[in-house]
Design brief:
heterodimer, A: 113 residues, mainly beta, 5-stranded mixed sheet, 0% helix, globular, B: mainly beta, 4-stranded antiparallel sheet, 11 strands
Amino acid sequence: DAKTTQPNSMESNEEEPVHLPCNHSTISGTDYIHWYRQLPSQGPEYVIHGLTSNVNNRMASLAIAEDRKSSTLILHRATLRDAAVYYCILRGTNSNSGYALNFGKGTSLLVTP
Amino acid sequence: DTGVSQDPRHKITKRGQNVTFRCDPISEHNRLYWYRQTLGQGPEFLTYFQNEAQLEKSRLLSDRFSAERPKGSFSTLEIQRTEQGDSAMYLCASSLAELGPLYEQYFGPGTRLTVT
C-alpha cells in the first residue's frame, strides 16, 4: 500500500487558517486521498476526499498537488473544536480489505485561543 | 452521533477473562469494520464483513479473537483469555459497499478495554 507522511503535530491560533500537509510520493494513479479526523475521546470522522482536483466542502478544502505526490488539508478558520488528530489516508480501487482505512499516526492539531 | 453505536463504552476485565463487544451499524450499511487503537497510534484494521460474511481478517486478529455478524446487522467481537496487551480502544465502522473507496466510513464511539 502507498504510504503517507504527516508531521506529528502542528499548532494554530483560533480563527486563523490552518494548512495540514501530507506527502504521498508513491501514490498510484487510482488512489483517492481521504482525510479523517479524530476528536478527543471519539471515533474518527470523515472530513474530505479527492482524486486530482481541489475539493471544498463545509468542513474544509483539499488542495492536491499537480503531480499528486502531496496534498494539503485547509481549515479556513480554526476553532477550538478543530483540535484533533488529522489522518491523511490513501484508498485504492483494489478492494482488498474492503477498502479498510490505513490510518498511520496522523497530525495532532492544537488550537490555542 | 454518527448513527453507529457500540456497547459497552468501557470494559475493565481481569487477565484471562473473556469479553464481548457489540456494534450496531447504520441500518442500510452492508459493510462493517472492526479496528483497534492503542494509545498514541492511529486505528488499525482488524476485520470486515459484507452483510453476514466475514471477508477478511488482518494478522492482528489472533486466534483468541472472533467476530460475527449473524444476520448482517449488528456485530459482536469476542476476545477470549484476555491479555494485558489487548488493552485498547475497539472501534466499529460501517459503510456502503457499492461505492467502494468513494464512500466514507462512519465510526462509533468505541469500546475502551482495560485488562488488569
